[in-house]
Design a protein that fits this description.
elongated; about 50% helix; two-stranded antiparallel ribbon
């Protein structure tokens, strides 16, 4: 048997040490008053992600406490009573204990509990074993040993325990510490068995690989590409669960690596699609190209002539949308039949809504982006070919797109560059660079004209004031057109005030009432 990496020590923060000592004392109190004589002391362990992150030198404010012979709620209840009785000794405010009921349909077969102590979110859960039946992805859970609990987890690096009594790291898979040292992601059990039990673990491993910059071992990669695993991931796993994992990946430290893994493992069809039996033929390589373009804009473009494109992804929210738009790029030009076609819902938006259960705000931005990209491309092409837009036309262009115009503009750019993106990520070929430059020039003009927030500009006159200037007692079908024409005048005459606006309205009564 190969030698294992020696167990390292973990340095606790002052708050973590107080919590550790408190839980040790609670366990001792429970043991001293217990009428059961099973020969096994109550043993508590910090488990999973907290141990991994501490070994990496990262702070983690979420602690899962694994319990060997009580339910989480029972231990948390005893903790609450202990603190109430010994408040002067510990000087820790008692907090409410939130009970999480057992719910077999959501894989919660035993009661757990959660609370907060000294700024640490603490979940209490018993050590578990899992068994799966062939006709259900919902495991049957029972009290388990530390080994059983470790083996049921998704990755060896997530299966490390910290025994709060001995203050030692415990590696019951016998590979977790080695994998931490070698920066590897592997499953505690044979990977097909781990993924077949819960195919969502495929996405979890990709997420942890991209977050930690660890390498997934080849054996696991092969199992991830198994046709049965991919079909189960696409058709049998709740799309909400899939969407949550994708969101965490794309909001994580390395979305480019996550999407690179998804593409290389041929998992696009299992993730970025609605759960239907038959899918159209899609150019999934477009996703791979698109994520390279987004990465280039975010990470490489500084110092290049089109570096201002980075302003399209200033915020974390805009970057998240950018990676999502790249992920959905193979759906360009597609639309599902029926109600989707009738309402002009692009297939990319349907995939996001039904395949990933994205929220309404994200869904709406994807609709706008994949519905308007040709319009945006046409506007940019005309403007850069010598037919430059006036300030009023450019402002109305931004107003037509709305608050998420930057994401829509980026999507149009992305879809235009994809066919020309060859070579490496750092120096795109001339045709791709020319397209990036074209969008950069137009974006610069929007900034120079002060129109980045044009979508939110308020009309200099409100509806009632326009009616008064026109001598109208009530609004008619002309009102919207009149307000838009007033806004065009306002954009072109930003140095003029309300009096000038009223005068302009009075001079153009016939035009405004017929708009």
């Amino acid at each position: 048997m190969p030698l294992q990496t020696p167990a390292p020590t973990i340095s606790l923060t002052p708050e973590e040490e107080i919590v550790r000592k408190l839980l040790v004392d609670v366990a001792a109190e429970i043991d001293s008053t217990s009428t059961r004589d099973d020969g096994e002391p109550l043993t508590l362990r910090f488990t999973g992600g907290w141990v991994r992150d501490k070994l990496l030198g990262e702070q983690c404010h979420d602690i899962d406490v694994g319990i060997n012979k009580m339910t989480g709620f029972d231990l948390a209840t005893r903790l609450g009573k202990f603190l109430a009785e010994k408040q002067p000794d510990y000087n820790i405010p008692t907090r409410s204990i939130h009970k999480i009921e057992s719910n077999p349909e959501k894989s919660k077969h035993l009661e757990t509990a959660t609370t907060k102590i000294l700024g640490l979110d603490i979940d209490f859960v018993n050590l578990r074993s899992e068994t799966y039946s062939e006709d259900s992805r919902i495991p049957q859970m029972e009290f388990g040993t530390p080994v059983q609990d470790a083996l049921r987890r998704d990755a060896c690096v997530n299966a490390l325990f910290y025994n709060i009594h001995t203050q030692q790291v415990e590696d019951f898979t016998e590979r977790g510490l080695d994998d931490m040292k070698n920066k590897l992601i592997r499953t505690p059990l044979p990977p097909f068995e781990t993924f077949n039990d819960d195919p969502l673990r495929v996405l979890r491993l990709i997420r942890f690989s991209s977050r930690l910059d660890f390498t997934i071992v080849d054996e696991a990669k092969q199992a991830m590409q198994n046709i049965e695993i991919k079909k189960a991931l696409r058709m049998k796993i709740s799309r909400e669960r899939v969407g949550i994992e994708v969101e965490k990946m794309l909001q994580g430290p390395n979305p480019h690596m996550a999407l690179s893994l998804i593409y290389s493992l041929t998992l696009f069809d299992a993730i970025f699609t609605p759960p239907i039996e038959t899918l159209p033929s899609l150019l999934t390589e477009h996703m791979s190209i698109a994520k390279d373009i987004i990465w280039h804009i975010i990470s490489v473009s500084d110092g290049l002539t089109y570096s201002n494109l980075k302003s399209l992804v200033d915020s974390k929210a805009e970057q998240y949308i950018a990676w999502l738009l790249a992920s959905l790029s193979p759906w360009k030009g597609h639309m599902f039949p029926g109600v989707h076609t009738k309402k002009r819902i692009p297939a990319a938006a349907t995939a996001a809504r039904e395949g990933l259960k994205m929220n309404t705000k994200v869904y709406t931005t994807i609709i706008h982006s994949y519905r308007n990209y040709e319009f945006i491309q046409d506007v940019v092409r005309k403007d850069c070919s010598g037919d430059s837009m006036t300030r009023s036309k450019a402002g109305m262009f931004i107003r037509k797109l709305g608050p998420d115009w930057k994401s829509q503009y980026l999507c149009a750019l992305l879809l235009e560059v994809i066919p020309h993106w060859k070579g490496n990520d750092v120096t795109p070929i001339a045709e791709a660079e020319g397209t990036l430059q074209k969008y950069s020039v137009f974006l610069s003009r929007i900034g120079e004209l002060g129109l980045e927030e044009a979508h939110a500009f308020k009309p200099i006159l409100n509806g009632k004031e326009v009616m008064a200037a026109l001598g109208q007692k009530k609004a008619g079908s002309w009102m919207m057109g009149a307000l838009n024409m007033l806004m065009e005048w306002q954009l072109e005459n930003s140095d003029k005030g309300r009096n000038a606006a009223e005068q302009w309205v009075k001079e153009n009564i016939e035009m405004l009432l017929s708009s």
